[in-house]
Every structure is written in structure tokens, then in C-alpha cells.
Known about the structure:
62% helix; 0% strand; mainly alpha; globular; 9 helices; binds zinc ion
Amino acid sequence: MMNVTGKAYMSFQQRDWGSLWAIRSPPKAKHLLWRIAKGCLPTRMRLQEKRVSCPLLCPLCNQHNEDDWHVLFGCATSSQARQSACLEQVILPRLQRFSSATDVIFDICSNESQETAGSFAMLVWVLWNNRNNCVWNDMNESGSCLGIKARHLWAE
Ligand SMILES: [Zn+2]
């Protein structure tokens, strides 16, 4: 199916929830992917929708509002991280095809190998962990370090 922007989107029935649990990744990374797919990631945009008063800008770049798409794919840190995690080929074509982070996640989990989808989940976990470290501990790693970290964590 296509939406007004000409991008593909998945209906609820097309979303294969089983594929999310079948990937090869530590449980904490699977859980995070599941929370994102459910629309429960507490980004600043989502908190604001729930009338929590907080800044809207991404704490990493301070340039764009923080929503799921920005945290996972849009931020410069995320883009550097997927390159150093060797996942650019997996992620980039899907950013052109889909318009929601959830659809990108389901498409990767249902069509890539369980290993590739697993290392993608690890990358997502590392990105969100870094974002939280930045907000709560004022610590922040470069995108290329994060990508390498994701590869190491996944291989362990
Ligand atoms: Zn950002």
C-alpha cells in the first residue's frame, strides 16, 4: 500500500509480530524494538503529546524535534552509527520506501536474516542508550563509536 507521499506502509495485518521475537539479539534489544513497534518509545515529541512539559529538540543534535524516526534514522549520530555498524545497505533503501520507523523495523525483521535483524536491533538499543546517557548523565559518544559498539555487543 502507498500513502500520500508515495511511500509504502504496512497495514496492521501485514505486521508480523512473530518476526520481531525470532531475531537473534539479546532480550533487552528485542524488548526495545517491541516497544518502538508498539509506539511506546518515550521520545520528546511523544512526551509532549502526553502533555509532559519538556524540550522538543533532539538532545544530541539540538536541530530537529525528537521523534522515533529522528532517534533511529534521522539524527547525524544515527546515520554515522549505521555506517560504522555496516548496516547502511540494510537501512538506507528502507528509509526511502517507508515513512514510519515501525514499518522499517517490521520490514527488516521479516525480510532480513535473523542475524542481520538482530544486529539492527542491537544498533537501535545502543542509539537509545546513548540518547538516555546524554539526557541523564550528560555523556555522549560519537556515531562511529556507537556503530562499532553495536557490532561488538551483538557478537558477544
Ligand atoms: Zn538529533
